[in-house]
Write a structure and sequence with these properties.
The protein is of the alpha/beta class and 336 residues long. It folds into three domains: 48 residues, lambda repressor-like DNA-binding domains (434 Repressor (Amino-terminal Domain), Orthogonal Bundle); 126 residues, 3-Layer(aba) Sandwich (Rossmann fold); 133 residues, Response regulator (Rossmann fold), CATH 3.40.50. Helices cover 45% and strands 15% of the residues. The protein contains 14 helices and twelve strands. Strands 2-1-3-4-5-11 form a six-stranded parallel beta sheet, covered by helices on one side. Strands 7-6-8-9-10-12 form a six-stranded mixed beta sheet, with helices on one face. Helix 5 links the parallel strand 1 and strand 2. The longest helix has 17 residues. It is elongated, with a radius of gyration of 23 Å. About 2% of the residues have low confidence.
């Protein structure tokens, strides 16, 4: 069995330094901390969880607050959750998953106990009612998402505004002049969910900048709703040739609906999406898309928390730039 003295000898430090690196009770240099962590990984050292918690007055548990509200696409949310759990385990932390409508009362209930050392919050709203309490807590936190006023908070996410802009710029460069955004379910916008609002902001800014005719259509996460939106778009925008989809659940049924209504993809209609790569690649017509970097966001959110728990300074804002992958669903406007 590997002991703490073995780790210290391998890293070239004292056993007390290894203990400080594990507990965070005293500051050590970043270079030393990384060397200790590398030795722990290489030797496979597993500190006793109870002893660690007792020594550091920590639980070695992170709370992941994921309120599963209506309109949320659960498979994508779970990709973020799996990444958080996997990364936390690499740091010898467990994750307490809170899936109810955890507003201020829920946060207070968790914060008033010794259950967790730190929190990660998802489904962030522009005017999130949890922010005042979050700023007052004595536990570190990271938000996956950006509220309107993010000062004093640590936030990370895909740059959804830039993602909306990039989809439009791609269509404009292909010569499309009439475009539409098929967005998240209506209740997501009613809640002012930040990522959905950012996509609309980017889409609108880019269409205005390029002089494109455009509309925004929230869409329930159901095939019948996709059909209704497709019919409405063709009725109200008969010159429509480009669509941006930000609603994973209706991407495939929406393409099917357009083709049933007589439009070929991409011959008559180019389609882009903001969605997981595996979904975009799997469709009958592979879709040009901007990937949701769920694995990277979840991993980096945990890394930010670990640094905060160690007393290190971290950036308040981490925005991941969008990456567009061109596939078969988009083509120049003059394609026959």
């Amino acid at each position: 069995m590997v002991k703490i003295t073995d780790v210290a000898r391998h890293a070239g430090v004292s056993p007390s330094t290894v203990s400080y690196a594990l507990s965070g009770k005293r500051p050590i240099s970043e270079e030393t901390r990384q060397r200790v962590e590398a030795s722990i990984r290489e030797l496979g050292y597993r500190p006793h969880a109870g002893a660690r918690a007792l020594a550091s007055s920590r639980s070695n548990v992170l709370a992941l607050v994921v309120p599963l509200r209506t309109g949320i696409h659960v498979p994508v949310v779970m990709q973020f959750a799996v990444s958080v759990v996997t990364t936390a385990r690499r740091h010898d932390h467990d994750v307490l998953l809170l899936t109810q409508e955890e507003g201020e009362e829920g946060l207070r209930r968790v914060a008033d106990t010794a259950l967790v050392d730190a929190l990660i919050l998802m489904d962030v709203q522009l005017d999130d009612p949890r922010l005042p309490l979050l700023r007052s807590l004595d536990r570190p936190s990271v938000m996956i998402g950006f509220p309107a006023e993010a000062d004093g908070l640590t936030c990370i996410d895909l740059d959804f505004k830039a993602a909306g802009e990039l989809c439009v710029e791609h269509l404009a460069q292909l010569g499309h002049r009439v475009v539409a955004l098929v967005g998240s379910p209506p209740e997501v916008y009613v809640r002012q969910t930040a990522f959905a609002q950012r996509v609309v902001q980017g889409f609108t800014a880019a269409t205005d900048r390029n002089g494109l005719a455009s509309t925004v259509h929230p869409c329930e996460a159901a095939p019948a709703a996709a059909r209704r939106v497709a019919e409405q778009l063709l009725r109200e925008q008969p010159a429509l040739t480009g669509v941006v989809v930000h609603n994973e659940a209706v991407l495939e049924p929406l393409i099917d609906a357009f083709e049933q209504l007589g439009l070929r993809v991409p011959g008559d209609l180019s389609v882009t999406a903001i969605c997981p790569d595996e979904l975009a690649e799997s469709l009958r017509v592979p879709v040009t898309s901007i990937a949701l970097p769920s694995a990277e966001v979840g991993e980096r959110a945990v890394e930010l928390l670990m640094r905060k728990l160690a007393g290190d300074d971290v950036p308040e804002a981490t925005l991941l730039p969008p990456r567009l992958t061109r596939r078969a669903s988009t083509a120049p406007r003059d394609t026959p």
